[in-house]
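Lay summary

Proteins are chains of building blocks that fold into shapes. Our project writes down both the chain and a compact code for its shape. Here are two examples, one after the other.
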Amino acid sequence: MTDDQIMTNVLVRYHALLRQAAQIVRSERATAPPPVTLDLPEPDERLTAFYDVSDMSLTPLGERDGRRLFLLDLMRNPGTMTTKTPASLLMVARAAAHVRATGERLIIVTPTSGNKGTALRDAVARAYAHGLVTPDELRVVIVVPERSRGKLRACPLSRDPALSAANPIALARVQTPGDVKPLSQRAVEAYGAAIHADTGFRLWYTLDLDNYRIADAARAFAEAELMPITPGSRPRVHAHAVSSAYGLLGYHLGHRVLTERRPQSLPAPARHPGFFLIQQLSTPDMVLSLTKGGTARTLLPRYEADGGLWRQSADPAFPSVTEDPAEEIDATFYTRAPVTSPQVNRIIGEFGGGGVVVSRYECVQRYDTVRALARQAGVELPGDPADIREWSLVKALAGALTGIERGLLAPGTDVIVHASGFYSDAVLPPLAEHETTPVDGEDELVKLLMAAAAG
């Protein structure tokens, strides 16, 4: 990989453009403003050092059947190995600026299936280490469905008992993983004012699309610098393993900054690329919505049992072979019927693209090819796919290969695959069992929040 393929510290490099993205979001926001302003603080020496794990890279992976493949690596923070790093850094930077400006203390609260929480905990630990804020001023509480326990990763907060206690992890016993979202939001809305009055800590519920798409706008800026879309460019599609497609909506916001604001620092793209959605069979709702117009599981193709496997040949957008028609490859992708589907469908309807659902069986069948492609971009996958704890990268590459093989991605297309996450226990150690607190329902979650604020 050459130096010019890597964009280092994109949150500083594109700060002026990200502020324009935030201005667009603020001007169009239909709901009440968040308790922490969307304005981005100006980077100083400490903030620049705090942001310095926000790198991105773009690597060509060669040609396959007339399509050129590229990998946009968004997981270059070794402390998280996921694309949630830039948004988490921006949120914590905004929180630290809020503390300095108002004197008000904050507790960030977020539901997560793993990666958002790990990235926020890593960002809070970095803020402590770089002197942006102290544990008495800013803390974070994450609420994780019990089924996602294996996704949680260790970080510097884990190594200090006092920091671990001040930044607890609620392991929620919920009926479905997505239930952690309303559970967390209800607790914050119902008891946030009382906790603030008793302790001085304001609760900030951060599972908000705007918190993520502002940071993800940097994807469009990096592309415009490394591989601009000119009038002579080949057709282009961005392929992404998605749960709610926050990252692609962030890219779309960045594209708007480049085309509507016309900054002098980067060229405006000649056109908008297509989006190609990649999902799994347990949560295929965005691909179903795009291809079938709804999210009911009855819209899935009918699978027939065949010697321990299940097969279908009616619809190329869904796995031809799977070990389980409802399998969950990765607990991170837990969202059903995401509210973002209509907007993503409109973008694909206007600019092209599509989607595909992959099975673990198909990912494993293509694993040697996927591993070789990842290695070209400097990412070393384990020899045994059973060691993988975050499947986003494997799903994305396997989905792109499937789309090419089945003609879902047209010949002559440049396919930019978003590498949004990969880790194994060897790459990123798991969180110790004793560092989580089981909670049953809203009352126990509120007790944990009160303890975090009072400690």
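And here is the second example, written the same way.
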Amino acid sequence: MLPVNFHKTFIPERRLIAALLEYAALGKQGSYKEISLDTGIPMGESSGKVPAVLDYARGMGLIELASDRTSGIKKPVLTSLGKIIYLEDKYLGEPMVQWLVHMNLCRSDIGAKAWHEIFAKGRGILGSSFTKPQLEDYLVSIFGPGNNRTGPLVLTYVEEAALGRARVLAVEGEKVTRKKAPVLEVYATPYSAYIISLLDAFFPGRDQVTFSEFNSKTFWFEICLWDRSEIEYVFSLIERKGFISIDRQIQPWIIERKASVDQVWPHLFDDWA
């Protein structure tokens, strides 16, 4: 997971993420300074945005780093999700894409610690509405005192330059309100691919997982902020796509995969033409 202050107080600017995806697509590698010169991502002598942009892209599930971490040379490689987004929506302009990368940032494996604590584990503690001071106090209770940890996180979902189009958060003064993930038919294929990617990551080698087991490992229902009826409705939409089936004969219901993630990601934008 990415550490609490990985962002260095920067937000994930979509134009900089796009420049990094282009760099990765071309198979390039280099030091922070070389990446900066090639992509235009700002980098000074001792600090800059390149490390934060690399980490954001990793946490979003768009790239992996193939290079030796101790060498100083970074080789970003596009993931399956990164490849389709690079081809179809390099600047992460679609709210659907912004929701997917947000969900990845909230994960306990590739995501960011603060995101996971707030959006995944925090649902039952913070609730869906809280103030910025309450948010900061919550992080202090987990990680101890720190500087400006909630500012970049909140701004990420306010700024048009970042992930503001997804409307994950609504901010009015000091009040912050979480919004539910979309419960719409057009999201059925993206959610199918995303669920299968979670099965790969958290339940390797298994094609069947109960709903309760799935959520206890992935926290996906908490990240989406759905109630039971919304979960059931979303899965009824997903099931129609044929990539996943649901066994409703026993409780809790069982999720069963019918396709590999690499078969589904290429269909991500099929219903968004």
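What can we say about the second shape? The first helix runs from residue 14 to 25.
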